[in-house]
Structure formats: C-alpha cells, structure tokens
Write a structure and sequence with these properties.
heterodimer; A: about 230 residues; alpha/beta; Pectate Lyase C-like; elongated; B: about 525 residues; TIM Barrel; 8-stranded parallel β-sheet
Chain lengths: ~230, ~525
Amino acid sequence: MSLVLDASGRDLRSVSTELKEAVAKGPVVMHGVVHLHGLVAGFQSGDVTIGGDSGDYLGVLNDGVTIRVTGNAGRYLADNMTRGTVIVEGDAGYGVGQYCYGGTIVVKGNAGDFAAVMNKGAVIIIEGSVGDEVATYMLAGDLVIVGDAGKNLGNYLIRGNIYVGGKWESLGHNTLLEEMTQADLDKLRGYFDEYSIKADAATFKKIVRLSEKPFYKAKEPIQLESPRM
Amino acid sequence: MPPVNGTFCVTVMKDRCINTRMPGKCATCVEVCPYDVFAIDGAGSVHVGNYNACVGCRICAEFCPEDAIRINPAESEFLVRSPWTFPQVEEIHYKAQTGEYMLRGFGTMGHAPSFDNITVVPSQIASPAPRDKYREECNLELVIGEDTCENPIRLPYPLLFAAMSFGAVSREARMALAIGAAQTGIISNTGEGGLLKDETWLIKGYENEERTLKRWEPGGHLVVQWSTGRWGVSANFVRAGDGVEIKIGQGAKPGMGGHLLGVKVTEEIAAVRGIPVGSDALSPCRYYDVQDLEDMKRTVAFLRDVTDYKVPILFKLGPSRPYEDVSACVEAGADAISIDGLVGGTGCSPAVVTQGVGIPTVALIPPAVQALKDMGVHRKVKLFVLGGMRSGLDAYKAMAMGADGVGFGAAAEIAMGCRACMACHTGRCPYGITSQDPELRARLDPEEAGQRLANFIKVTAEEIKMLTMLSGHDDIRDLSEEDLRAMDLNTAAITGLKLIGYERRLPWWENGRGA
C-alpha cells in the first residue's frame, strides 16, 4: 500500500519535508510535481513514483532511492547521482545524468542534448534517441543509446563505453569505434532483460576513448638554448 | 616543463661551503632542490649546474648547514632592457621552441592597483575618540546566514581560508588548513577536489576519528565546494560541510575551470576525482547543469533541501562585472559572496590569463558593495574579498570599504612555509604544499603548519582590532569609507575614497556612486 502525496500548488520545502518522513515508512506515489525543481534530492533509500511529469533536477544527488516517473522528466534528470535507480516512462529533457558517480538511469523515450556529460560511473540507458554533445568528457560508466545520436557524440571521452543501436551524426574528439565483445553483448542483454527493452544487442556499435590522456602530452623536459648567464 | 618564472642568481660562498672544502661530504643543496639547479660530479663535487632552472624558492639556502647560499635576482643588465626583460625573452624562447603556451602557478606577478595607496585615518578630537586596544573590547564577530538557516556559521574573526583543492595542494596542506581553522574558529574550504576523511574531524578540533580527543579549541567550519568539475561530490559530501559554496569562478582564471596537470594526479587523487592516474583534470568552465539564473536559483534551492535548510549557501565569484554578478548571486539566494580579484591565487593557470584577465581586487569592492546596497542586503548577505590580501591592514581597508570579511589563499600558503616561487603547477613544491611527491610532502608537518596558520590568523585579527579601535570604533561593522583616504588620484578615482589633501571625493563620485 503506497502513500499518496499530492504536491499541487505547494512549495519544495513543505513537500520535501513531508516526503522525507513518508519514504521512511514505505513506497510513495506523488502527483502534481511538475512545478517543483530538485525534488527527491539526496535521498539515501526509498521508493518514489511520480504520477505524471516531473520538474527539473529530479533526483539530484540521489544516493540510493528508486524513482519512477510515469510521464516525462524535466531537465537535468538525476544530476550528480551516486547510487539508486531512476526510470522515466516518457521523454527526458536536456542533460540527463550529468556528473553521476553511479546508479542507473533508464529513459524509455528520447533524451535531449548534453546527456551523460562528465558521467563518472553511472549506467545510463536511453531507449529512444538523444541530442547533441552527448557523453562529453565522460569519465566512466556505460551509456546505452538504443535509438540515434546527434553531433559530437562522446566528445573528449576519457573512459567508459558508449553503445549505440542506431546512427549518429558525428563523433567527438578522442573517440574510437571498437568491436563488440561477448562481454559487451552479455552486459547489454542483461540491461535489456532487466529493464524490458526490446532491442537486439548484436546490432549495437561500441564507442570507446581513443587515448587515455587526451589533454596530456608526455614529453621530455626541455633544455632552453638561450644564453646562460 | 621548466618554469621560466624569472631568473635568479645562485651564489655559493666557497669559503663557507662544506663540499668545497671536503668534496663528497655535504650535498644537501642537491638533495633538497626539486629543480636540479645544483649538479654533483663523479668526484662528489657540487657546483651550480643550471641557473635557469632556479625559481627562487630558497629551500637550498634554508637547508644549507653553513648558510653558504645566496639567491638574488638576476643581474640588472637583464632587467633594465624593458620590455625585453630576461623572463620575457625566455618566455618567447619557450613558446618558439615548444609550440606551447606558458603555465604558471600561484598568481599574478607585477603591479596592479592595490590597497597600498590607501591610508587609514585615525581618530583625534573631531571624531569619536580612539579606543584602548589593550583594555577595551572590540567586536570582530561575523555570522553567515543568520536569518536564513538553522545553523549559521559564527566566525570569531571576519576571516576565512580560500578554497584550495586536494590535488592542487597536498594532503598535508589540507590537514594543516583544517588544524589552522580549528584553532581559530574560521572557515576552511575544500575547493573542488573532494573531501579528505581526516579533515572532517580535524576541522572540529578532534585528533581522532571517533571524536573523543579534542585538542584544538574552538573548532572551525568546513565549507564544501559545489563546482563545475564536481569531483568527489555526493549527497554525503554536501552534508559534511557547515556551508556549501557554489563556485562560479576564481580570480586567477575567471572564465576557465580548474586546471590540475597530470603530473599532480597521483593514485590517491585519481581515486578521489575518478580519473586515470597522470591525466590532466580540466574542470569545465561553466556548469553543464545550469543554463541561466533561474537554474542557479533551483540549484540553491535543492542544495538547501539536501542540507535540510541548515547550512548557509555561499557563492564564489571571479573578477568580472562585480555589480551585475553580485546582484545575480543575491537574486539566486546567496547567504555570502566571496569575490576574488585579479591577484587571486591558483595552483595552475595559463600565464596570460593569470596575468592579464580580470579586475584588481581593490576596484571590485565599491561596485560589489553598491550592488548589495541597491538590493537592500548590505551587511545581511556577507561580502568576502579575496585576492592578494596580505595582512590585517589590507583586511581593514577592504572592510572599511564595505566588505564584511576577507579571505586568505596565497597568504595562507605563505604562512605554511611557501616562498612564492610561482611554480605550483610543476607539482614539485619544495615546501610540500602544492606537491604530491611523497618525498617533498614529507617536508610539511601538518601540525606545525597548522600552528603557523593559526598564529597568522590571530595576529591578523589583532591587527584588524588595533586599527578599528584607533579609528574610534568598537565593532568592525561600524567601519566606513570615512576611515580611509586615497593617497593618489588613480586610487581615489577607482574607489571613490576621499583624496588626501583634497579631503573630498572626486567630482564624479559626489552622488555617492561611480559615474
């Protein structure tokens, strides 16, 4: 039996205070939260279902809670998440899963530009297509795009893997197309089974970093040739 | 990369040098110099091998058992050929040879308008009589977030340590800052490099993790930084602080993100930051998750929510458009704003940016204060001034111009032992402050450095108190522009202070604000 919390017309502080008490007791279903930005911020456990659409920064700093959104999510979904799961049935806006250290994000619809930027270890699965500049400066983790990607995919990639089922407009700096291994296929199939996604792992392409240190040029100390005193 | 930061003449006095008398016996200078200035030959004889490499840190002179080494600026013949000074010529050679721009640590070199041309006006008969520093009290307290949060930061002195990240500075330096803050009750700021576990109890004055042995009173305040790179940031990190600082920019490189060169990314730092060992950690220049002021307001709102509305939210600004930037921070919901000037310090930055970008600290204060006054929050939203603050005198001047407090970054490093050799970016700091090399780090004792920091802060506070009382006040909040005079036309023009002799503000300041 879930607790139902209607947030219509209420401010973040009062909703959040009530939510903190409610999640400790059991699963919570929330309604009317589209005007609230930064909801379910920094929770360490619990289960929250958002009926309808959500605002921006949903599940920011998430540290263990499971969030389901039945509608669409706003911008910066699960920003800076460290643990937990966020599942969106509809589309998600700009900047899904930026700065994440861990956890899982699943978007059943499409996602906007700048998703997975500086991702440092989260698993981010987008069942639809994504926009431009996705996975810029990604440092670790997996990004699975079942649909298509836009420009500059994986720009300045440091580590981590990008799997794309569809096409992309262009790849960013420091990216390399690599053969899928059996481990990759198993991993993808695992994700697809777990989140009931209909896709064929065998058709996916894998993008990894070209060089481990894209900014750093190792070089010998330089002896200047100007006259010595 | 060789730090071509200037040029120094290393002189070894042969009559004193042990090695000259007994080759093979003493080679302390060779051992301590991290830049290989001294060379040792097969017979064990030491000589100055590479003048160019000397950055002027004077560690060799400090360690020399016979006091036989002198470091002086290079011969004047090179310095008088302005603008083609020796460092300038070397810099062009470096660029021509390597095809790369210069990087530099520490901060700006050379002259920028400063507090030096401002003088303090003491009290005589026409104004309230001076107060007795030895026998009367003076209020130096400062509270951040008094009306907005449950646990405001209460500072005994209006001072703080500027943000210095773990990575830019060593573990020992971070610990020293925590101990220094614990002994004085002021703020230590994590910077963007994540949080060291030890810091959380050291800052409160405890010697051990269990918090049973309290050693340092009164215990300081830890401010955690929410920055553009978000290194090591989690909900627990945000909650670990007594305040959260949102970094917009910094004085040494406004408009750029943090630079941490690969040479300083050791295993420990790579683990905290989540990047490969030896790879450059270049933070983004802006927040990918903030596109406009509305987003910044939401960021403040969720940070308050994550910390249960208990701790203040601070902003850190680089020197750009102080009036507009400070107004925007107030609108976003700041409890305190630190504004960093051109002279602000850094662990690493492109030399042109450090040297040539931004507004000097002294010129930031009048527009920043005006912004707070126009928003009706002057003295409510606290204004801290950073960037080249050196002493109680600088602090007093900044506060009389309308700031609520000041921050020390470079001065704190110097208090720990640094000699301002401006080679922080090389990762070979001879004093172990901005180095990650275990051998160099061992030269910095956190407790001793913490004590030095505490001494420095206490003396600075004493200086502020002395100056406040001799100008007839018993509370730092009573200081005003009337307590200062500009000593030259330029300073009067940029600060709106009364000019000495003329005893009035310059005409375009007469309506109380700049043109």
